[in-house]
Amino acid sequence: MTVKLKGRIDSSNAARVEEEINEQIGTYTGELLLDASELEYISSAGLRVVLRLKKTNADTKIINCSPEVYEIFDMTGFTEMMDISKAYRKISIEGCEVIGEGANGIVYRTDPDTIVKVYKQPDSLDDIHNERELARKAFVMGIPTAIPYDVVQVGDLYGSVFELLNAKSFAKLIKAGEDVDELARQSVEILKIMHKTVLKDGELPSKKQEALRWAQFDVDYLPEEIGTKLVKMFEDIPEMNNMLHGDFHIKNIMRQGDENLLIDMDTLSVGHPIFEFAAIFAAYKGFSCVDKENGANFLGITTEQCLQFLNSTFSYYFEGESQETVDEIIRKSEIICYARILRWYIKKKPADEELTKQVIDFCKQYLIENVPKTDKLYF
Fold first, then answer.
1. pLDDT in tens, 280-293
2. Least C-beta-crowded within 10 Å: which of 41, 99, 161, 261?
3. Domain with 158 in it
4. Mind listing the pLDDT tens digit for each residue in 313-334?
5. Same domain, 197 and 52
6. Buried b (16+ CB within 10 A) or exposed e, 232-244
7. Distance CA 302, CA 18 (A)
């Protein structure tokens, strides 16, 4: 239940306000949201009203506080006793340039100095605050990334605001004619920094545990011996605490001046780098297994440039290794990638039913043909 708090609540009207609220609540004892978006001031008398409501309805929260009202709650210790949140500044993205996109959000430039990542789901506030913490953690660990400094409301959605002065994504740079091979080399520099960063147990989610659920889901859609071996190979991938980005592609790598930065840090995890390469393969080629232009349309470059960037990424990362070794790592990445895509299409069931069926059939056939040829999924 949501109750509006309006105007000023002080000794002159606190008793009447409390009576009106109690009449509205009645016998309700569930979650109570006190919407303070129209509350201008609250005195100690008003605070006592809130305190009595909290005692009656233990799950009472205050939302949409102005900075001035929030400061009153904070100074009086109420923010330590209950869940109180500020109102979010509202902005418009109409006419703003799209400069990046990830699995969960779209990044817009709102002015020369500022970008905002707008999350695609309306119930994203927990995800936004989680990404802010992950970005801070990555920054402290030496990963070149932008730190969000504000949360805003964009229509019915929410977003994180970053300061990125005149930054452009690698996708935009490629489209502007910059060398694909050189940008791939620069991206590998960041990727190696990230993969060499080792965290403590439990600091970030385990990518292996997430990926294992993909394989376990796929079992029901594959021949028994294929599904059983697939799960076993996922289980055998070593648990590692190396940092992974999880959505590493040219829309999430930005150039600001002479520095390259990562954005879209909500997919950070730890694990074996093979999971990173499976995600990289998915972005440039895997999701294009049936619709050959899918990756190019998403990334904003040509299919040929997608494949060039993908191949150059593997070549630079594994520089010095034989082509046979690199090809084997790519095949391991493909198996993990198509196990993930199989589950994704079965669960998501996109609107194009014929395309969905073709992708599912492709992934199943790929796994049936390649799982028997593979002994392990890591290097």
1. 999 999 999 999 99
2. 41
3. 97-163
4. 999 999 999 999 999 999 999 9
5. no
6. ebbeebeebebbb
7. 63
- 65, 87, 109 — which closes off a domain? 87
Distance CA 252, CA 135 (A): 13
Q: Helix, strand or coil for residue 145?
A: strand
With vertex at residue 273, the alpha carbon angle to CA 247 and CA 226, rounded to the nearest 5 degrees, is 95
Phi, psi torsion values for 36, nearest 5 degrees: -100, 20
Token readout for 15 is 């008793």
Q: pLDDT-derived band of residue 209, with 50, 70 and 90 as boundaries?
A: very high
When pLDDT is cut at 50, 70 and 90, the band that residue 167 belongs to is confident
CATH number at residue 19: 3.30.750.24
Distance separating alpha carbons of residues 317 and 274, to the nearest angstrom: 12
- Residue 202 and residue 255 in one domain: yes
Cα 205 from Cα 246, distance rounded (Å):
11
pTM: 0.79
The tally of domains found in the chain comes to 3
| Residue carrying structure tokens 């995890």 | 269
Q: Please report how many Cα atoms fall inside a 13 Å half-sphere around the Cα of residue 58, on the Cβ side.
A: 0
